[in-house]
UniProtKB/TrEMBL annotation:
GO terms for cellular component: tRNA (m1A) methyltransferase complex. GO terms for biological process: tRNA methylation. InterPro entries: SAM-dependent_MTases_sf (IPR029063), TRM61_C (IPR049470), tRNA_MeTrfase_Gcd14 (IPR014816). Keywords: Methyltransferase, S-adenosyl-L-methionine, Transferase, tRNA processing. The keyword NADP does not apply. Signal peptide: none annotated. Homotetramer composed of a dimer of dimers. It catalyses: adenosine(58) in tRNA + S-adenosyl-L-methionine = N(1)-methyladenosine(58) in tRNA + S-adenosyl-L-homocysteine + H(+). PROSITE patterns: SAM_TRM61 (PS51620). This is tRNA (adenine(58)-N(1))-methyltransferase TrmI. It comes from Aeromicrobium ginsengisoli. Residues 265-296 are annotated as: Disordered. GO terms for molecular function: tRNA (adenine(58)-N1)-methyltransferase activity. Its EC number is 2.1.1.220.
Length: 296
């Protein structure tokens, strides 16, 4: 049973998250008549089943724990995975900056561990469609397991296809195409063919060399607006008495995001391309070059 997007009393089969006074967390799946063991004694599941979230219960040794259903951003960072996930801070950016709306026709590759898939399914709602592509069968199994945990057994509008997105894609009219794979520039012809005018191409790339190659390939392809790239850093704040200051640790670099919009057929963007002028990387130039850029 999914524990997400629910309210009301806690039921057997649901996951809950127990937090102790020091902030230590335990994820527990509720089962009537059983108990969860901690260093501070046993916690009876029956003390939680039938009660609302937000209660404080005590272990057999009197240690207090507060009880909530996990939130999606808490779950995705701890779910089983075979490959790096898109972190909540970046998933939130994708949903807003790639403008994922209820009813949108979205395609993503690769699906990896299903983290972004979970956010996309929420954002498109029951009227939207999401075609997820994953080249590795073993990773696709993780996606299914994780997505079912979050969105239930048959999320409406969702298909997961195992295979190389460049060869097996079936969608032809795509509103939003999200790429999280090692060589997203190889999908740009596909994006040009299948994104509707005004559609958004969005890539999540971990390194500057991937970013540079992606951007140059979009420009070379033509028919897209000038790409925009950015990154998001997330830093919590320490809030204790007068010691109100940024935390020492933060979620720094995960990846860059880059978006571009599809122009109507035959149209060229009015935005000035920041593509280097011909000859800019000529034989006398010895500085850095965008990845994949061939000297003229
Ligand atoms: C970093 S992971 C994606 C993580 C995922 N977005 C998430 O949030 O859990 C990249 C995935 O792309 C898959 N992949 C790479 N090339 C692909 C292709 N041509 N078609 C489909 N999937 C591909 C890889 O197998 C890998 O699982």
């Amino acid at each position: 049973m999914t524990s997400f997007m629910r309210s009301g009393p806690l039921e057997p089969g649901e996951w809950v998250r127990l937090t102790d006074p020091k902030g230590r967390k335990h994820n527990v799946q509720l089962e009537a008549g059983t108990a969860f063991s901690t260093k501070k004694g046993q916690i009876s599941h029956d003390d939680m089943i039938g009660h609302p979230e937000g209660i404080v219960i005590e272990s057999s040794m009197g240690a207090p724990y507060q009880v909530f259903r996990p939130l999606l951003f808490e779950y995705v960072v701890s779910m089983p995975r075979g490959v790096a996930i898109i972190y909540p801070k970046d998933a939130a950016q994708i949903v807003t900056q790639a403008d994922i709306y209820p009813g949108a026709r979205v395609v993503e590759a690769g699906a990896g561990s299903g983290s972004l898939t979970s956010y996309l399914l929420r954002a498109i709602g029951p009227q939207g469609t999401l075609g997820s592509y994953e080249i590795r069968e073993d990773f696709a199994e993780n996606v299914v397991r994780n997505v079912h945990q979050v969105a239930g057994p048959n999320p409406p509008g969702w298909t997961l296809t195992v295979g190389d997105v460049r060869e097996v894609i079936t969608e032809t009219e795509i509103d939003r195409l999200i790429l999280d794979m090692v060589d997203p520039w190889t999908c740009i012809p596909l994006a040009a063919d299948r994104l509707v005018p005004g559609g958004i191409l969005c890539a999540y790339v971990a390194t500057t060399t991937q970013l540079s190659r992606f951007v140059e390939t979009v420009r070379e392809q033509g028919g897209f607006t000038e790409p925009r790239a950015w990154e998001t850093l997330e830093r919590d704040w320490h809030l204790e008495g007068l010691a109100v200051r940024p935390d020492h640790k933060m979620n720094g670099h995960t990846a860059f995001l880059v978006t571009a919009r599809r122009m109507a057929p035959g149209q060229t963007s009015l935005e000035k391309s920041r593509r280097p002028a011909p000859g800019a990387y000529g034989p006398d130039y010895h500085g850095p070059r965008p990845a994949g850029f061939v000297a003229e």
